[in-house]
Write a structure and sequence with these properties.
about 140 residues, mainly beta, Glucose Permease (Domain IIA), 8-stranded antiparallel β-sheet, 3-stranded antiparallel β-sheet, about 15% helix, globular
Length: about 140
């Protein structure tokens, strides 16, 4: 996963308004670093509609990873990022206690920021949680 946190909304799960999105929402620590989950080329970096700051990464032809909701983003269009490279920073400031508790429990129970992650293969949305598990087992 691009960030340490807790899944708040799963792939195609409806929110309180009944809206389904083809991605997942992750609760993160304030100020968390968001990283590229795999080697990828930056295809977009900037604001996008109501998603805030967005990075769109292309790990291979026909595959896109959309990472949205960051407070700061790194990388320019065309940059090739190794896996684990920082692509952005979540908003807010994390206390050392919060960061320690998050690392120990792999949850975000205090004040959190939220990150939206979407994976598309040949323009078809994929479940990011399943995709990241496959990449972990068999890197691109």
């Amino acid at each position: 996963m691009p960030v340490l946190g807790r899944v708040l909304r799963k792939f195609n799960e409806a929110d309180a308004a009944g809206i389904k999105r083809p991605g997942v929402i992750i609760a993160t620590a304030p100020g968390a670093i968001v990283t590229s989950p795999t080697a990828a080329t930056v295809r977009y970096s900037g604001e996008l509609l109501d998603y805030g700051l967005v990075s769109i990464l292309e790990p291979q032809a026909g595959m896109l990873i959309v990472i949205a909701g960051m407070d700061a983003i790194y990388g320019d269009i065309g940059d090739v990022l190794p896996a684990g490279s920082p692509v952005g920073l979540m908003g807010g400031n994390a206390s050392p206690e919060f960061t320690t508790a998050l690392a120990k429990s792999n949850t975000a129970s205090d004040r959190t920021e939220t990150l939206y992650i979407e994976v598309r293969e040949n323009e078809t949305p994929q479940d990011p949680l399943t995709w990241f598990q496959q990449v972990k087992e068999d890197p691109l």
